[in-house]
Design brief:
Radius of gyration: 15 Å
Helix content: 25-40%
Shape: globular
Strand order of the largest sheet: 1-2-3
Structural class: alpha/beta
Distance between the termini: 21 Å
Low-confidence stretches: none
Mean pLDDT: 89
Number of helices: 6
Order of helices and strands: HEHEHHEHEHE
Largest sheet: 3 strands, parallel
CATH topology of the domain at 61-138: TIM Barrel
Length: 138
Amino acid sequence: MFYLVKTPGLLKKMIPGCIWNFSREDKVIYLTFDDGPHPLATPFVLDTLKQFNAKATFFCIGKNVVENPAIYKRILTEGHSAGNHTHNHLNGAKTDNEDYVENIKLAKKYIDSNLFRPPYGRITRFQVQLINRAFRII
């Protein structure tokens, strides 16, 4: 299969403990959306998913959940999954390890999930080790 963007194999080996891909034997598509809930985009996405009876995982920013609780509740009520995407959309490669983990913990107060996706796909090896104890990193 041809991909325009593909995670280098070396990176996968350097940072084990993250979920980089799933089995190719199952004919499944995983729909994921990052950075919400957003008052304009997320309701549109939810309406579209409902039209096709499709489910998705929304990797939410804690601050956005605080600002848009009704939309976050709708995500869960309609049977979708939620994941943690930090509280303030921090770039792990540019953030102190302790600050990064604390920001994830802050988001966890509002997002009840063991799934985590690092914003920008940027995370350090040490952060993976710290976060892997409580989250599945996607």
